Description:
Blueprint: H1 2-5, H2 17-20, H3 24-27, E1 47-49, E2 52-53, H4 59-69, E3 71-74, H5 80-94, H6 129-140, H7 142-148, H8 151-161, E4 166-168, E5 173-177, E6 202-207, E7 218-221, H9 225-241, H10 246-249, H11 267-272, E8 280-282, E9 290-293, E10 299-301, E11 312-321
Parallel strand pairs: 1-8, 2-3
Antiparallel strand pairs: 3-9, 4-11, 5-11, 6-9, 6-11, 7-8, 7-10
Helix pairs in contact: 5-6
Amino acid sequence: MIAQLLPPPQTAQSLNPSVSHASSAQQHLPAPLQRTNYGSHIDPEMVDWLTPTSKDTPLSEIRARYSHDGYVWIKNVIPRSDVFDMREQYFQALSPTGLLSPDTGPREGIFNSHLDPTVHQGLGATPQNSAMQSLDKIHASKEYQDFLDHPDLRDWVRRLTGWQREAVLRRGLLRHNVPGSRCPSGIHYDQLFLRAGDPVFVTAWVPIGDCAADGGGLMYLENSCELGERIEKRFEAQQEKENMPKEERISAFNRHMGELGHLSHNAETWAKGDGLGKRWLVANYEAGDIVFHSPWMIHASGQNSDNFGRIRLASDLRFYEEGAKLDERWTRPFYNGDGL
Length: 340
């Protein structure tokens, strides 16, 4: 279990300033407005910056950051060219749907603003029928499956955890989010969707391209791992009381869960209530960055309001130590209708 491999939590003051604070230029600027799935803006007082970590930071401090915060956002892990190659392959596959702006290429991934964004949603919403087959193919493609095995990504998983060997769940997900669409990720922690395995994995969230803080990237609820675990225990108690069958208990879509398996889709009201007034942390992500986060870290995304019309594309990858009890349902590549 990663919690046993990492050092005990430290106070923020005990960590090196280079890891415990955002860049000096950024931390004095207000975070950009975040629009929820309901179209309203999150109270600016409820939004702050995610902490970046340089990959040359001492490993002990990187592990301490993960242990303390539930995440670590490491800059420039994967070569930008490799990330943009993946972006190009994805949007090349989807280009027949017409979602790309004329006179732009798949490597840029600029949305055609003349189209209805609700018709061109990706995973996490309802992709148009013409995109379904392409999404299945790209997830099963050699290019994407090789990306899951990228040596720099794998090396950092082992460095962060101390594992000798790791196993990746082949059901990685590529999610695109066009400007103006109503398909941001709802509020959740990842164990909700991987209940058939133990909560001992590490998620690597990889932006496939640059993604500004108002471009629909992930936002994290600060210091929320304990809250996520407490919510799951409450679900477990309800299921036990009702003697719910196992196949229902492990489903993120059982009768106790919200829309699409999420806790909520209103990031503003939920954070102020069930989220105990904790702030959402956002970031200007760049191609090559990786955010590693805990199974219990609560996160979501706002709507994509990118000024340049860039389509947000990112991949969610989960790693276990080899031999750990993993969620076998996630060992095959994604396909539409797999029920997960």
